[in-house]
Amino acid sequence: MRDENEIGGVIVECAIELHRGLGPGLLETVYEVTLARKLENRGLSVARQVSIPIEYEGELFTEGFRADLIVEGKVIVELKSVEVVSNAHKKQVLTYLRLTGMKLGYLLNFGEALMKDGITRTINGQL
Q: H helices within 53-120, ranges in order?
């Protein structure tokens, strides 16, 4: 059973390989389906477009958020294909982590010229 850091390492490796192969600037959905397959080929379970419920005033709402990928039920991956990642994008990952209780998330921006510049690692609490 892999821990979050091991899973994260595989995610980063696969994202870099994918970016080298496809290049920057395609639609997010293209990167989502291809990254999910790449991770599955590496032996990881991947869920796509996972609803993240939010509780407000005692009611549970499932319509609020969707995580692009959840890997091994432990790591959230949010994908972008934009020129510049905003602070709102980064906060989105942290919000997802807090709502799910997960500890590790990645914001991967495939719009960057170099993938290493498009990787933001977010920790909720301590790993």
A: 87-100
| pLDDT tens-digit map of 19-30 | 999 999 899 999
User: Amino acid letter at 19?
Assistant: H
Local structure of residue 72 (DSSP, 8 states): T
Helix, strand, or coil (residue 35)? helix
The structure tokens 């994918």 sit at 18
Cβ atoms of 31 and 22 within 8 Å: the answer is: yes
Residue labelled with tokens 């192969």: 21
The answer to whether 124 and 96 have CB atoms below 8 angstroms apart is: no
Give 5's Cβ-side CA count (13 Å radius).
2
pTM of the model: 0.92
Task: Name the token pair of 19.
Answer: 């970016």
Packed helices 28-41 and 4-22: angle between N→C axes, nearest 10 degrees: 130
CATH number at residue 35: 3.40.1350
Cα 4 vs. chain centroid, distance in angstroms? 13
Residue 56: give the domain boundaries.
Answer: 4-123
Number of independent structural domains in the chain: 1
